[in-house]
Fold each of these.
Amino acid sequence: MHTLLEEMNGANGLVDPFNTLFPFGRFQRLHVARFLILPEAQAGADPTRLPAAPPRLVFLGDCDGPSDRFIAEMAVLAGPELRYIFSHCTPFIGTGDSLVNWMQAHQVEPAANYINWRGRTVLQIRQEAALHQALSGQLRQLVQEIGRDDPRALRQRLLSFVERERDAGRLHLTPPAPTPVGWWFRNLIHKLGVPLLLLALSPLFLLLSPYLVLRLRYLERHDPEQVERPPRSHLQQLAAREDYDVTNPFSAFGEVKPQPFRRCAVRFFLWLLDYAARHVYNRGYLTRVQTIHFARWVMLDNNRRLLFASNYDGSLESYMDDFINKVAWGLNLVFSNGTGYPATRWLIKDGAEQEQKFKFYLKRRALPTQVWYKAYPGYTAFDLARNSRIREGVEVRPDNDAEIRQWLAQIQL
């Protein structure tokens, strides 16, 4: 299977968007996607609690719109290719079976899902990138012609240029699709319902708090750490798949600690994380981290194992440093429930704050991502936000010279 997946990649280490095995480039609503193989998982000390699991093929895709619609689109645009890939899996997908039904039956909903900027589509990203490129070239030409002293004149010339390019069909700024009323209503119910539910349960949490605190401290003192340096061969394997683009994929797979307290804790904190990512951190930030495009946490094997996958700008070292320095407490809330995690204190202290231990722990569980696709290579999360601000300056025009200069400065970046 490894050899089969490698055939999707080009000589430069990046996936060929129109490879014959899975043509990612056909899907106009697909932001990022990956194929990876989860290694065989050994049974725990008690196989009834943590059974063994064979190697598994995973496909992850972040797309615009509902997942069911994307699955149907995959079957239409790449049905034969997917049948061939999934024919290597057990249970085998037969020629007479419905590909859509088979994929839906094997789909696992994430326990938590983070999107850098909810509502920003692939089409919008590409159109705004083209707008920035066109304006950047035009601005350099205008500065040579009329100088920098009159920002209003520069802006007016640029806006006139945009109108001409749009009339000629060389630039497109498609208005965003209206939010479906049903989705908006469900989202509002979720936004209000979760805090109300937590408020209703607060007396129960208060009643149980002595037990929860004592149990937590006992486990924190007795859970073993597994923070030895990863083998050099493993680190080299990870490094060999890094930095082909300004954005990198990260995949990690590990076991949840066996105690019921830990399994309940990880589900609870992932539930809160999913809520925060949906309603609070949905405009370019995950707490103070701005370099992540998409991330998801997927519980497997009856909540006994966790797959984490993200797409981030920069190197793995800078990615880990970003989290350690800015949101170590958040890492502890979720990942301290994984076996071998550096010991925490009162759940949010220590843990990831022990930098070297945390990095060894994470790298030991990191997996090479065999195939990774990004619809807009070369663009960071910062680039996407800048391009959106440039478009906003075209459609909602600034009034004073300071705002105009700031808009022009964005174009020059």
Note: The mean pLDDT is 94.
Amino acid sequence: MVTLKHLSVKERDEDGVPLLAEADSAESPGIKHRRESREFFLTQRKNLGLSLALLLSCYSAILIPAYLPTKQPTCIESSTEDYMVIMNRSAALLSRPCISGLTKATLQKVHSTAVNFHSLVQIAAFLQNGTRHWELPPPLGLLGSEGMLAQALRVLPNSGLPSVSNKCKRCMVVGSGGTLHGKHLGAHIDKYDIIIRMNNAPVFGFEEDAGSRTTIRLLYPEAASFLPQEYQNTDIVALVAFKRLDLEWLISIVTKKPLSWWNKLWFWRDVVNDIPLQPGNFRILNPEILRRTWKILQTYGKHESMTVPTLGFTGVVLALQLCDEVSLAGFGYDFTHPGSLLHYYGTVRMDHMMAQVVHDVSAESSLLRDLVKSGVVHDVTGAVWQTAGLIHQTKIETEKNINNTQI
């Protein structure tokens, strides 16, 4: 038997639990440290749970709307009477003899104290080899991109228009507007000498409304179609350079040498690596066209310096330079139906254009209305005048609301 001589037991406490002599002393540093560590790790778990909850909330806010039903664009069908008016108007334009120099002569007769319309046609359509001074960077000039421009022009064997048999040339500028949908103007459009289209507006599958031939397609890299069939029956692809990298892209397309992965990172969306055309089928649009158009648009009310002309209106100005007569189809926006189709293809709604700030749609619509009113261009689908009136009425109502608020 072992006798514990030095171990003493205190009297029972009030609860009757015997305590060792050392038990009532202060807590040892080691025990205190373990307790604080345990409390710290418990706090970490709580923070981790909170972080996961926040992360899941963010993902839900982003992903769940993508699976919710969205409002589908509606197709505004034309009445039989409206359809016949458009077809008869188009047939009448094609049946009469082409008048040489009509567009430029009419443009000279348009009098305006603030606008020099005739300056729009005094520009070379496409860039050629040679040095010149640029005042502005892309897209209104090529300041800072002269070296890359020189490289691009060296790989382009041609700078002019494809040969057209008729001395008097008629242009059709095919806009991408939903107003072209269901009009069955394709056969009429194909009868024009020069047909101008913009960006990736499709032909394949839309021949009945939009026609099947393309003389000039204006585009920038991010808007070039990935479908090879869209370049069939195409004479010219003309680059509209919005940045220096666009010229590098053109060089890669012409020489069939893909861009590096690093260069591709700087485009705001994926770009096509190949366009199935020969080097002689490519051009570079003269940025002076955009600059002069932009200056004229400034005279049509408030025009922010950060806006640029749409490629649709740029196509109209290009047609004024190249053709004796100019007609339009697929121009004009139906702002009375925000849920209607913005384009004759796709599912983008009209309210998308109403919300954008890159282009001054109001100024362009007013200028285009004046060109139609003066007879410089012919609006086959007939929506240009209606669009300008609606935008003007919207501006008046907005100003009234502002004034009432201020009062």
Note: Residues 4-14, 17-26, 65-70, 388-407 have pLDDT under 50 and may be disordered.
Amino acid sequence: MHTDMSADLWKSAASVLDGNWAHDHMVPSRRLYPHQWSWDAAFIAIGLAYVNPTRAWRDLRSLFEAQWPDGRVPHIVFDPLTAEGDYFPGPAFWDVPAYGNRPARGSTGLVQPPMHAIAAWEVYRRAASHGARCAHEAGEQLKWLYPRLVAQQEYLTGRRDTGGRGLASIVHPWESGLDNSPSWDAAMSGVPADLGLLDRYRRRDLQVADAAHRPTDVDYARYLGLVINYRDGGYEDAGLAHRHAFLVECPSFNAILAAAELALVHIAAVVGADPMIHRRRARRITEAISTHLYDERTATFRSRDVRTGTLSPARCVSGLMPLLLPDLPREQAEAIMAEAASPRFGLPGTTGLPVPSYDRTAPGFDTLRYWRGPIWINVNWLLRRGMLVHGYRGEAEDLREAMVRLVHDSGHYEYFHPETGAGIGAPMFSWTAALSLDLLADRSVPAYAKAA
């Protein structure tokens, strides 16, 4: 990698993160996402630790200060200094009651993938590399976060195991982080699309983003209907199978759930807790993913509709994410690599670009629309991490170089055109900038892969 290119990218990434800091947290982007997002905060902390570790810890703590009493970490924490009209669906639509010492309407009631234990461990590792004093200070941060991270995991592995198979269910596509992925199409087809909701509630995203890049009105009406159903049930998870139209076990969400337990193995050792609790739970989740979300016929991982028991027919980037897990059977890891290298996704060795969010050969592949084709840096970062876990070092380095080159050439965009590499969506996007810093630093094999 050219030295000047790396230096330029490092400088621009650090500038994006500095510009998106808001009081005590990071926003994903100033115009389109003016609040704090859950899994964004985790990815951001990983990179922010290189340039401002104090802010990295503050961002994670700000998020977990909004944790619900049941352990869930809301997918958005609303900034009280941001006007209601600046983002939809905003605080009034979610109408979350006050909890703990949090004011009413301070967050949403959904969750996102639990990347936070992974982030906390990575921020700690970065601090520990600077000596005993930094390690001690970072250890104090871990002590504060650890019980909250455990509560998050227990919520997801307990209340959200709606299928009884040892997997967490998502109750809304937004919870996956892969909002309008084709992986949800089959399950979403049974969700009523009340387009009248869009007359009552005006979409804010289309005022600041191209409609061709965003979810359709039909999708959005279904999203709002699912929120209303969950909200009107008091955001209660008991009995969801009987009253909620969307319950899905996602391979990406659950792979991150298991990887978080592996990060907690190391965090527990630092804070003086029992690491084996987390090791056992990681193995159980990995086994459940391997058993219930793997399609033997096509040798791919797919999401499962809890209500019907059927696997999604769509081949999406979410199906590559179980590669994160060191206990995944070897033949399944090899199948993921074969899928990633196939014309459907085309690793950088064949395309020169990171992998897209959806099967390139599928009739519905869309080069512009959000998670239905474009390239996203965060899932490619996770895929590279999985490659390193399973020893695919050459492929991991190719992917790292492709990501760095893409962001350097096109900018710190939210996502990228899967054929031209042009930036799409929000510019100056925080997790793209943060993960660029981590890719430039390149600390190689994730520590959790060595968990005993």
Note: The domain at 3-445 is CATH 1.50.10.10 (Glycosyltransferase).
